[in-house]
Amino acid sequence: MDDVAVDVPELLPGGVLSGTTELDSLPPYGKLSARMTVSAEDAGAEVSRTVWSVPWLPMLLLALAASAWWARRRHLGGRWFFSSRAQSAVVPDSEPEPIAVR
Questions:
Q1: Where are the domains of the chain?
Q2: Which of 6, 11, 45, 59 would give a disulfide with 15, using CB separation of 3.0 to 4.6 Å?
Q3: For 87, phi and psi rounded to 5 degrees?
Q4: φ, ψ at 21 (rounded to 5°)
Q5: Is 71 helix (H, G, I), strand (E, B) or coil?
């Protein structure tokens, strides 16, 4: 865990300070957490936040690949790719005999 020092100007009670800080050592995706601690001689406060960073482009490519695979499997009707060729090449040895009905 790295600490980043920020200069805070004098604040009156109930005052608000907004700002941003860029951090270079964060991973590009995953669970990101930040904790801010402000302390003074007589008081202190601590706030923490957690954010999920999702890599949208790889997730989109994965979803497209899964959709293409699902559509291909649905088009084939649950058969394997080469199974239709193998089944059509089989020729029966003899014709079935008809059944006499009385």
A1: 56-88
A2: 11
A3: -75, -35
A4: -140, 135
A5: helix
Q: How many CB atoms lie within 10 A of CB 34?
A: 13
Q: How many CB atoms lie within 10 A of CB 73?
A: 13
Contacts of range 51-59, beta carbons closer than 8 Å, 24 or more positions apart: 53/28, 53/29, 54/29, 55/28, 55/29
Tally of residues, the chain: 102
pLDDT digits (tens, 9 = 90+) for 52-92: 888 888 889 999 999 998 888 877 665 655 555 555 555 66
CA 96 to mean position of chain CA atoms: 56
pTM above 0.70, yes or no: no
Tell me the per-residue pLDDT of 5-63, one tens digit each, with 9 for 90 and over. Answer: 777 788 787 888 887 777 777 666 788 888 888 777 787 888 888 988 888 888 899 99
Looking at residue 45, its amino acid is A
Q: What is the DSSP letter of 51?
A: E
CA angle 46, 47, 52 (to 5 degrees): 150
SS3 assignment, position 50: strand
